[in-house]
Amino acid sequence: MRITITGPRSSGKTTISKLLAKELKLDYISSDEIGERALKKQGGLDKAIKSGVIEKFIKNSAYNLIKVVYKKDNFIFDLSGGSISSRKHAKASEEVRKIAKNNSIVIGLIPSKNINESISFLFKKEEKRGHFKNINSIELLEKVRKDFKKYPNVFKKFCNHIIYIKEKSPKKITNEIINKLK
């Protein structure tokens, strides 16, 4: 069984992926960890993004690393939302979506059917992240809004199942996914 879990940043992908892997006795694989290892010489994923080194990496080899994941069996793949929804690297994102869709069951995590509720939910989570400590609240809210708006349409075509996570515990979300897989 191959399951890909994806969604916007701060939607709980890692928590849910790890819990689901444990429940189903499958391996856990993280796209962020793959990126960290691949970009170790450049200081890791965060530094590569901030320095712009990530641009060349994405154009030259990013989705080849994703292809390697899907040669395996019996895993939960925690796939970063940016890798499937980038406007700047639309071709690479399209290729990643194609690889994931053709080789796994894709589960998308979104806070709510309501866009404004989703944005509010993600903004509150993003405010607590160290990544954004140097961004004021107005800028961060606009960033969350801009980033989120691409997901609903991408998910309609890409995901086998969409799970709405707002006001649900990780355990409840995991059980909902397990029921969808039956």
Architecture overview:
The chain has 182 residues and is an alpha/beta fold. It contains 11 helices and 5 strands. Strands 2-3-1-4-5 form a 5-stranded parallel β-sheet, sandwiched between helices. The longest helix has 14 residues, at 90-103. The N and C termini lie close together (12 Å).
Oligomeric composition of the shown chains: single chain
Q: Uncertain runs with pLDDT below 50, 5 residues or more?
A: none
The major pleated sheet works out as:
5 strands, parallel
> What distance separates the N and C termini?
12 Å
Shape: globular
Strand order, main sheet: write it out: 2-3-1-4-5
Structural class: alpha/beta
Q: Provide the helix percentage.
A: 55-70%
Number of strands: 5
Q: Round the Cα radius of gyration to an integer and report it.
A: 16 Å
What is the mean pLDDT? 89
Strand residue percentage: 5-15%
Report the order of strands and helices.
Answer: EHEHHHHEHHEHHHEH
The number of helical elements comes to 11
Task: Write a brief structural summary.
59% of the residues lie in helices and 14% in strands.
Per-chain topology:
Elements: E1 2-7, H1 13-24, E2 27-30, H2 31-38, H3 45-51, H4 53-60, H5 62-69, E3 75-80, H6 81-85, H7 90-103, E4 105-110, H8 115-127, H9 137-148, H10 151-158, E5 161-164, H11 170-181
Parallel strand pairs: 1-3, 1-4, 2-3, 4-5
Observed structural traits:
single chain; 182 residues; alpha/beta; five-stranded parallel sheet; 11 helices; 5 strands; 14% strand; globular
